[in-house]
Amino acid sequence: MEMRRTVIGLLIGVLLVLQGRAQEFTLMNGRMYITLPVHLSKMQLDSFVVRYDLGDMDLSRVLITRNYNGLKKKGWRVERDSRGVLQLSKQVAGPDDLGDVGKRMKITEEHPTFAELFPAENDNLLYGFNRFIHKYPFLVQDSMVTFFLRGHTGARGVLLAGSFTNWQNAALRMTLTDSGWIMNVKLGPGKYWYKFIIDGGWTIDVDNRLQEDDGQGNVNSVYYKPNFVFTLNRFRNAREVCLAGSFNNWASHELNMDKTASGWQVNIYLAAGTHTYKYVVDGTWYQDPENPAQLPDGAQGYNSVVTIGKPHRFFLKGYGTATSVVLAGSFNGWKPYELLMRKTSTGWALPYVLGPGNYSYRFIVDGKSIPDPENPYFVQNTAKGTDDSYVIISPNYTFRLHGFAGVTRVFLAGDFNAWTTGSLLMKRIGEDWIFSVHLSVGKHLYKFIADGEWMIDPGNPLWEDNEFGTGNSVIWMGH
After folding, report:
1. What are phi and psi of 12, to 5 degrees?
2. Of 396, 379, 386, 382, the residue nearest 438 (C-alpha)
3. pLDDT along the chain (479 residues), means of 10
């Protein structure tokens, strides 16, 4: 399900977060005010940033360096008082009637659930694994997960509450066993937050090492419903075997595998896409001996490969005299050696699995990098000074500009394509100009460009100021 959030609704959530912490939020005359103690703990700050998708503000660096130029360029007014309290303010909406309480209530009357704000699967979640102590991981049979609370057999009643129940609103009554309490819950793959309510008292799962601050002064237990099993049927005498791959930035001691009768195994959650990996056995790196799929590792060896999802076919027409064509893009760290394309009768092709998202890419033909000549969509790479080809996988939102029949061309630009102009040409259908992209969960900024003139979305009352004083339209995405 697609969901469009209002910025004002989110700000009410921010108000709840900031209450009681020497932090506060106010909305006055169309401006947002955030008061933030400069000595806020890293955990609290990180949780706040992640939960409300404020990564573009780079608050961690700002509080450390006290360099506010970046925020000021983005339209924020910055003030700091003698108590070490930082106050940030910014224009967040244009219509004068946003100062009217009744109008604001109308805008914010539909409140999304926790699960809608933080879906189990989203673009910001690449992988996940569980870490339990004193008990085995929750039993999983197909889509059914058996949550287990060890002990507390003398309790009168225990409820299971989490992101999958909208917390207390639909908490599930657990069943008593001889060793604790259980509850079967049907879940899809991904990340979930939960707690137990024992005789009315809330508690985390003390046997679960994964915990997160929710930004509201609470700590919740975290559970990943796995969707992939890595199995190594060798090295039974090894002391330690770990899984490392592109999904965890090749961390060699993070994903410890469990010993089995035939070798080693680990269950994890993996997002859709292509993932490369190796096993680290007592410090030595190995390919998966039972997986023939492999890609060059850039060190005269190979990485094993797993894919989840459907492949996208990349194709370069022509270049029949070329000896080598390599695909490189944002999806594989622009590696110039990894994705060798196969020659066909009409060009070069490579099926490659990508998860939902927007990606940039280029072809490397006999050492020369070129954009895709058949793809009209591109994104500006300011670091390299190039225009890279742009592909959208599984679009989940359609932008619409109503009216403007007398306009010749309308382009869409926003943070999802690095504000590249002249690329995302909207199509005229009926009374609307439309274009579909994939938007990740959280906040996005955008504008329309009608016959060369930049404009905010006249059909969207939500906008915030920018460094040019012209404003950007705002949209919040969830599921």
Report:
1. -65, -35
2. 396
3. 39 39 52 72 65 68 76 73 71 47 33 64 87 94 96 96 89 97 96 96 97 80 96 96 97 96 96 98 97 96 97 97 98 97 98 97 98 96 90 96 95 96 96 95 93 94 87 83
Please name which of 71, 187, 40, 49 lies closest in space to residue 121, comparing C-alpha atoms: 187
Report pTM. Answer: 0.76
In angstroms, rounded to a whole number, what is the distance separating the alpha carbons of residues 86 and 88?
A: 7
CA-to-CA dists, residue 292 to 82, 295, 304, angstroms: 63, 10, 7
Closest to 438 in 3D by CA, of 317, 331, 313? 331
- β-sheet with 311-317: strand ranges across: 311-317, 347-353, 342-343
Contact assessment for residue 341 and residue 295, using Cβ atoms and an 8 Å cutoff: no
Provide the sign of the torsion angle of the four alpha carbons 351, 353, 356, 359, taken in this order.
Answer: negative
CB 410 within 8 A of CB 433: yes
SS percent in the chain: helix, strand, coil, step 5: 15, 45, 40
Q: H-type helices in 35-137, by residue range?
A: 42-51, 59-65, 69-73, 101-108, 114-117
Residue 215 tokens, joined: 């930004």
Closest to 8 (Cα-Cα) out of 114, 123, 67, 91: 91
Q: Domains in the chain, start-ordered, CATH in brackets? A: 3-117 (no CATH), 130-225 (2.60.40.10), 228-308 (2.60.40.10), 311-390 (2.60.40.10), 397-478 (2.60.40.10)
**Which residues lie across from 315 on neighbouring strands?**
349
Instruction: Tokens for 54, please give them.
Output: 């404020």
- Beta bridge partners, 159, equal 173, 197
What are the start-end ranges of the H helices in 195-347?
none
For residue 304, what pLDDT is reported?
Answer: 98
Angstrom distance (rounded) from CA 47 to CA 153: 34
User: What backbone torsions phi and psi does residue 381 show, to the nearest 5 degrees?
Assistant: -100, 90
**DSSP category for residue 138:** P
Burial class (CB in 10 A: 0-12, 13-18, 19+), 424: buried
The whole-angstrom separation of Cα 189 and Cα 172 is 20
Cβ atoms of 236 and 226 within 8 Å: the answer is: no
The tokens of 9 are what?
Answer: 């609704």
Interhelix angle 101-108/7-18, nearest 10 degrees: 100
The whole-angstrom separation of Cα 246 and Cα 337 is 15
Nearest-angstrom CA–CA distance, 119 and 2? 11
Phi, psi of 61 (to 5 degrees): -65, -40
Given a contact cutoff of 8 angstroms between Cβ atoms, the answer to whether 451 and 408 are in contact is yes
Amino acid 96: pLDDT:
43
263 and 232 Cβ atoms separated by less than 8 Å? yes
